[in-house]
Amino acid sequence: MTQKTDKYALISVFDKTGIVEFAKDLSSLGHKIISTGGTAKKLTENGVSIVPIQEITGNPESFDGRMKTISFQIESGILFNRSKPSHVKEAIELGIKAIDIVVCNLYPFEKTINSPKVSLEDAIENIDIGGPTMIRAAAKNFENVLIIIDPSDYQKVTESLKTSKDSFEFRKELAAKAFSHISFYDSQIAKFLNTDLFPKEITIPGRLTTNLRYGENTHQKAAFYTYPNNNEPLKNLIKLFGRDLSLVNITDINAGIESVRMFNQPAGVIIKHNSPCGIALGNTAEEALKRAIEADPESAFGGAVILNTLFDINAAKVIGAFKDERRANIDIVAAPEIEKEAVEYLSQVRRTMGLYTFGGIPPINKNALNTKWIEGGFILQTNDNWDIERSFENWTIVTDKKPTNEQLEQMKIAWKFITRIKSNAVIVIDKKEPMTRGIGCGQTSRVRSTKIALKQAGLNAKGAILAGDSFFPFDDSVKLAAKYGIAAIIQQGGSINDKASIEAANKAGIPMVLTHRRAFWH
User: Fold this and answer.
1) DSSP readout, 107-155?
2) pLDDT tens per residue, range 319-376
3) Nearest of 416, 425, 417, 456 to residue 443 by alpha carbon
4) Which residues are known catalytic residues?
5) In CATH, which of 3.40.140.20, 3.30.70.330, 3.40.50.300, 3.90.25.10 is domain 389-514?
6) What is the pLDDT of residue 5?
7) Among 3.40.50.1380, 3.30.70.20, 3.40.50.300, 3.40.50.10420, what is the CATH number of 2-193?
């Protein structure tokens, strides 16, 4: 029985990393190498003896390479069950050669569609058909066939073959990896071709970026995945010093980036539990960070500091002073870049502080969908990627007293701030400086958020701006703002009780602006 003496490995790969050495190892272990196209050429040029695939299929490679491996002979050689005598007998009668190893990786569809100039024709030509067919067949028949799709597994497979330790569990693991890879690959094709915003069926692909220290709590395990062709900063996180990341650290850094990315000038934010406790702008990183900490130094303890600009030694010394003066620690610092001198300084301030860079912050991908995970599923929505600068044109002043130009500029900053503060959100920002003075967020009552923001602002509320991310359902928040000396109010408007809030503002002599757009963020 030739199936017992002849051992075949089929190798057809686009990524040829390490393939020559692996093929030589397989040959030395007695496997005849079946190969195709560019892979066959690469192996032959490097002294590996191959069996051209057309000798197995009886057909030439055709249609510009679209037809190479798909054939009765190839798929049968992969799929027939060696443990069934009837299958073995039938394979012998049909002249089917048993292919015991399939080494395959796919056309670079992901890389192809990442080009902004990609044409539909180029994308379609990079949809692999024969590869996934072989991979699926080998993965289905994993008890009889080893399927290898990842060059990083070559050495492991070689060692297992040499020691005859290619166990059931090992083969099953490779099969699972293969099916995951095909699913990941096909999901990108479907997304690229789909014109439906919300198709009937959807698969969301993710690639493991790193295993996390733990999840939300220390007893929970967690790992961080990113979408393919994703240019968001989190994908580029690099640890410079200190602690590894937990789920909370990742979500805090993400919330911080979202809070500062809309500003061209230096912006700094302190994040606690996925929400800002202080956010500010400045002429320098140092000034922005000082203001962000000053906004709520009590909450800043144990927080994550995120900047949208170079984190230099002067900014680092702000954290040092925060520790010296208040005996307060910072857990995480993340910025596009951190100066070497700043890293050395901060490593002495706190040995467990995590220092991370994430590179540049690109514009938000306006075509991307936002995912909200729920138990047993998820919700997709379009990103809240409206043009905030142009939205200012739609604001209306609804009170007798009009805001000054200076107050309007502060309102614009306040509205940008509040779009990335957890709802229900009411904030107080300084009358002159571009910084928060009080933040009330995550509450189930809008007036409660107002009370928290005003109480935190204290004396700094006098002459300041109060902003709400939605409408005020009653006039209670406006009356409370008046008691604290708030000088101007900005809110969405649209409540059936708008008239009451406007009358309360008029009575207190407080100008009020309506944005006509909600800014919820959950």
Assistant:
1) --HHHHHTSTT--HHHHHHT--SHHHHHHHHHHHTTTT-EEE--GGGHH
2) 999 999 999 999 999 999 999 999 999 999 999 999 999 999 998 887 888 899 999 9
3) 425
4) 140, 273
5) 3.40.140.20
6) 59
7) 3.40.50.1380
